[in-house]
Amino acid sequence: MSITTLKINGQDVVTESGKTVLDAAKEAGVAIPTLCHLEGVSEAAACRLCAVEVKGTPKLLPACVTPVSEGMEVETNTPKLQDYRRMIVELFFAEGNHVCSICVANGNCELQDVAIEVGMDHSRFSYRFPDRGVDLSHPMFGIDHNRCILCTRCVRVCDEVEGAHVWDVGNRGEACYIVSGMDQPWGEVSACTACGKCVDACPTGSIFRKGTTTGEKAGDRAKLEFLVNARDKQEWSR
Amino acid sequence: MSKIRFATVWLAGCSGCHMSFLDMDEWLIDLAAQVDVVYSPVGCDLKDYPDNVDVCLVEGAIANEENLELLRHVRARTKTLISFGDCAVTANVPAMRNMLGGAEPVLKRAYLELGDSTPQLPHEPGIVPELLDQVRPVHEWVPVDIFMPGCPPSADRIRATLEPLLRGEMPVMEGRDMIKFG
């Protein structure tokens, strides 16, 4: 195993070469906020919340897909980053229709959690109030596109862990949304095994079990990491 | 030192924030001793929003012309305006009508399509305020000094926001106890 040494917030960090800045920071006990990152599946770098400053480049780099390199100097929590992170979270709220008080995930929502973390008490951006749909065609689950932040965790967990690839991303820009099957109603997609992994992967209340009402979506995100470890490392208990 | 002139207003909201305000229970007695309640649907009987108000809690989004008129009075006559609860801060549930488009499709849906008998659009100028095309949060119309999210904000959160103001300090709106939405 070759190793790489770098500095994170001035602290010397030694990690395995090839790891990401996010992994290295985690090992060093430095918390970087994330939303689209999910243990057990590949990275998408969709949310940009984990952006960090790296000495020598004016660009902000997403920690989840930036590999460590020798002598790298990373800052994870500068005023500039704090400002951008809060802006990103405000844009998430302004982009969709996030009505926390009537959401299944109220109190157990990662979007709500990061809003608190970045200190968002209101959105400086005007809410868009887009006209988005709700698909309740599946016998067990529903997807409410109003609450979707396009993190693509459902897409990745279904493809990489369940192997069913029910989900994908359709369209571009403001029309972008999560499609099931060949852009069919979810209930008509025969590839769906009704395993519920997308429900656990979803950071918000967008994908839920039918019958769940306000604040009742508990979620079990660690289950996905457990499943992956069970398969890859034969760790069968948690 | 003269007492703090305190007001609360109720715009497009369910009054749940005001109910949560009343949930402060016995602390309301302490509060009453330290402030003059000059305008409030739950605290006094005055019909006109007065001048020189020190602190005002504004519950609700801005959904109609009456909401907007009162809000503009509040802003012009108040030192510290607090956006009180999710409807004021995000427009929340009242804004779910925005997804139908403007005021006209909303009225048609509610009063014509869903009208059981003699469906007709409400129209009584000067009595029934006209709907604004979009329901919007308070800070999209006037500057706001303090944002207190929550649906409703808990009594503890309201108290923790007001207590520093009574001492002449600004509250620190940070962390789950103070700024969680919903």
Structure description:
The complex is a heterodimer of chains A (238) and B (182). Chain A is of the alpha+beta class and 238 residues long. Chain A folds into two domains: 3-77, Roll (Ubiquitin-like (UB roll)); 84-233, 2-Layer Sandwich (Alpha-Beta Plaits). Chain A contains six helices and ten strands; from the N terminus they run E-E-H-E-E-E-H-H-E-E-H-E-E-H-E-H. In chain A, the strands form three sheets. A five-stranded mixed β-sheet of chain A has the order 2-1-5-3-4, with helices on one face. Chain A has a three-stranded antiparallel β-sheet with strand order 6-7-10. A two-stranded antiparallel sheet of chain A has the order 8-9. The radius of gyration of chain A is 19 Å and the shape is globular. Chain A starts with a strand and ends in a 5-residue tail after the last helix. Chain B has 182 residues and is an alpha/beta fold. In chain B, 38% of the residues are buried. Chain B is built from seven helices and seven strands. The longest helix of chain B has 13 residues, at 65-77. Chain B has one domain (4-98, 132-179): NADH:ubiquinone oxidoreductase-like, 20kDa subunit (Rossmann fold), CATH 3.40.50. The model of chain B has no long low-confidence stretch (mean pLDDT 96). In chain B, the strands form two sheets. In chain B, strands 2-1-3-5-7 form a five-stranded parallel β-sheet, with helices on both faces. A two-stranded antiparallel sheet of chain B has the order 4-6. Chain B has helices spanning 16-22, 27-34, 65-77, 86-90, 103-113, 155-166, 176-179; strands at residues 4-10, 35-39, 53-59, 62-64, 78-84, 131-136, 146-148. Helices cover 33% and strands 21% of the residues of chain B. Chains A and B meet through helix 3 of A and helix 4 and helix 7 of B.
